[in-house]
Amino acid sequence: MRKRLFKPVVGVAILSVVLLGCAGSGKVSDSDTTTMSETQTMAGNAPETEADIDYDAMFGDVESTRQFDILALANSNEHLTTFVELVERADISRVLKAEGPYTVFIPTNNAFNSMTEAELNDLLKPENKVALLKVLQAHIIPTKVYITDFKDAQRIKTADNKVINVRVEPNNNVTIGGARIVKPNVEVSNGVVHIVDGVVTAQQADGGLIDR
């Protein structure tokens, strides 16, 4: 039986073109040789675990998250610095500052511990920028999607013909590409942010997928 794709994300291919265009416009500087071990804010160096993070209190020190764009919001929190670093390294900062609307799944620093330091360092290499973009584009939907919009067994199609599996448990916990949403529906000026406890990953699609 065919599974229908999540309708709001048909435009992901368009987003991929935008991301690649932004990344291609940047110049490689001396800072492009920085590794994870040299950057104290990157994953693996953060002392906390997911259990140590008070998700309810995240962004509680700001009057309103709507005053921030997506990247500015991530920059405002000490637990999200790895994602910010990767976005900056991929030269797509201006995409997440653009009008949108976007939905972005932002992993905590600790979430990146599912990747080894070597894997993260490889993503920082200029020659691997396309691979980095593929990792990041799995976290970005070019429309506004709230947690209640997701349905169990939905599959989000990416620009490179992979799928991100959606799981909604009986207790309404939502998992996107293996990453659980731990703080949903954070409103920002150009969309909505969901904080996740893992890196969103896409899988190869089977032959039964359709566009809508």
Q: Can you tell me about this structure?
A:
This protein has 212 residues and is an alpha+beta fold. The chain has one domain: FAS1 domain, CATH 2.30.180.10. It is built from six helices and eight strands. Strands 1, 2, 3, 4, 5, 6, 7 and 8 form an eight-stranded mixed sheet that branches. Strand 4 and strand 5 form a beta hairpin. Helix 1 packs antiparallel against helix 6. The radius of gyration is 16 Å and the shape is globular. It starts with 11 loop residues before the first helix and ends in an 8-residue tail after the last strand.
Brief summary of the model shown:
This protein has six helices and eight strands, in the order ααααβααβββββββ. By secondary structure, it is α+β, with helices and mostly antiparallel strands. It has one domain (7-24, 35-41, 56-204): FAS1 domain (Roll).
Total of DSSP H or I helical runs spanning 4+ residues: 6
Q: Outline the low-pLDDT stretches.
A: 1-6, 8-14, 24-47, 207-212
> Over the alpha carbons, how many angstroms does the gyration radius reach?
16 Å
Strand residue percentage: 15-25%
Taken in chain order, the helices and strands follow as HHHHEHHEEEEEEE
- Write down how many β-strands occur, each being a DSSP E stretch of 2 or more residues: 8
Q: Calculate the mean pLDDT score and round it.
A: 80
CATH topology: FAS1 domain
Tally of individual domains: 1
Query: What is the helix fraction of residues, given as a range?
Result: 10-25%
Structural class: alpha+beta
CATH superfamily: FAS1 domain
